[in-house]
Amino acid sequence: MRVAFVQWPDGLIPHSPEWQQIARAVEDAGPDLLVTNQLPFGSWVAGSPRYDEKTAAETIDIHDEGIKALSDLDLPAVITSRPVWSDGLLANESVVLEGRRVRYLHRKLVLPDQEGWRERTWFRPGRGGPLLADVLGIRVGVLLCTELMFNEMARHLGGDGAELIVVPRATDAPSPCMTAGAMAAIVSGSYVVSSNRVGRAGNNPEFGGPGFAFAPDGALMATTSADENIVVVEIDARAARRQKCRYPCYLAEDGKLEAALG
């Protein structure tokens, strides 16, 4: 499978000239699966320390338009995240687009609460851990941004059979995400592919750091850059399945680790 990952600009507006240029680049790259950054359209609402219902409604509306724009791409599948209503606040929900079909994958569980990332103010956490989904014949799990920092989430996805873990991000630079991505691949025996938001629009925080792809053994495959904001890698599900029988994955899968930890 050919998987594309990106670094897209902060404040991206669907159907704008900037979007049209990005859409052409994506279609020219011709991936089977596109992985976007986290909440890729419009303003980053969690930059504000105060919740505002009107702003929350606006980010839902612009992402609804963004979902339509992504669905218009001539691609077999896209994985992205979008804001949805959740008991008077928002939830950050990952979905896969397959043609005009939108399929739910996971709601973000781990919400930062610091300057520029007041996600606990704006979002309610999801319930239950991330689950696997079949996407174009590949077993895929999603970790949304900060969830990448928790190795146990990646390890459980790998133990359940994930061949690919995708990580939509909205992080600053420098950040520990590259290290976390490598470790997620190592402990899961899965490919780990991540896209990021970059730059700064308006009063938003400064986003940065590349998109990246790691092989199931933790080897870095590729990264994005300012000159190459979309990269495509080839993943082989058989390589992920083989890696799960190797160190260190087999140590978790044989049940002894859980028994030792009680």
Q: Care to describe what's here?
A:
By secondary structure, this protein is of the alpha/beta class. It has a single domain (2-261), classed as Carbon-nitrogen hydrolase (Nitrilase/N-carbamoyl-D-aminoacid amidohydrolase). The protein has 8 helices and 14 strands. It has helices at residues 17-29, 53-71, 119-122, 151-159, 177-188, 237-243, 249-253, 256-261; strands at residues 2-9, 33-35, 77-86, 89-98, 101-107, 113-114, 117-118, 133-135, 138-142, 164-168, 191-198, 212-214, 220-223, 230-234. The strands form 2 sheets. Strands 1, 2, 3, 4, 5, 8, 9, 10, 11, 12, 13 and 14 form a 12-stranded mixed β-sheet that branches. Strands 6-7 form a two-stranded antiparallel ribbon. Helix 4 (151-159) packs parallel to helix 5.
Just name the CATH architecture.
Answer: 4-Layer Sandwich
Shape: globular
- In CATH, the topology is named Nitrilase/N-carbamoyl-D-aminoacid amidohydrolase
CATH superfamily: Carbon-nitrogen hydrolase
Question: Rg from C-alpha positions?
Answer: 17 Å
Beta percentage is 25-35%
Task: Tell me the series of helices and strands, N- to C-terminal.
Answer: EHEHEEEEEHEEHEHEEEEHHH
Helix content: 25-40%
Which structural category fits the helices and strands?
A: alpha/beta
Distance between the termini: 39 Å
- How many β-strand runs? 14
Mean pLDDT: 95
| Main sheet attributes: strand count, strand direction, barrel closure | 12 strands, mixed
Low-confidence stretches: none
Number of helices: 8
Q: Give the domain tally.
A: 1
CATH class: Alpha Beta
